[in-house]
Amino acid sequence: xxxxxxxxxxxxxxxxxxxxxxxxxxxxxxxxxxxxxxxxxxxxxxxxxxxxxxxxxxxxxxxxxxxxxxxxxxxxxxxxxxxxxxxxxxxxxxxxxxxxxxxxxxxxxxxxxxxxxxxxxxxxxxxxxxxxxxxxxxxxxxxxxxxxxxxxxxxxxxxxxxxxxxxxxxxxxxxxxxxxxxxxxxxxxxxxxxxxxxxxxxxxxxxxxxxxxxxxxxxxxxxxxxxxxxxxxxxxxxxxxxxxxxxxxxxxxxxxxxxxxxx
Length: 263
Known about the structure:
Elements (H helix, E strand, L loop, with lengths): L9 H27 L4 H43 L1 H7 L21 H5 L3 H17 L1 H12 L4 H27 L5 H18 L6 H30 L4 H18 L1
């Protein structure tokens, strides 16, 4: 019995567990922030999600040092230990009795939850739009370093291009949240504008044929793409109402995974 191989190798389960853990943390946390600050949802979401850019920037130079010092196994153990702090953060979240500010009437019986969202035309169109957005959103982050080296940058300069993109991404998230908190137009119009600008910045990436050109394009793309992120999730409440926010965010992220995989 001791010689039997497991049906699924443990190495194949690791990405599944990591993805499942991320989903179980991200969706409730984002939903909690949205419920805690109903009148300043965009600004609160932008500030909360800016942390991802800060951590991404910090881990960029840190991981090579960990790999040199501890190897890939030790590095993964240290990163796992950092991730365990999410349990402490999660323990601080509390359900609050916040008023539902949406003027929409409550959904009819049988039309709430996931089933109702699957028959909710505006939500499905909204989710489909972000499936298409995510098909391109991660391409610069995944292929950016290789593109930088392709145009003659060394590893240090390639890392600098990605660092500039990450900094701009974090700033964009905060700025978009602040602008949406004092809107001159509806939040969904803000989101549409940032989405168009993100697409235009993606189109400019082939024109970056030098370190300076790629840095400028990465700066513009990072800012616009970062600005789009908090408004994307805040806009869900505008489409389906605050009462179905958690279900809608979770379902939309499942759809978005298809676009991310295609990209």
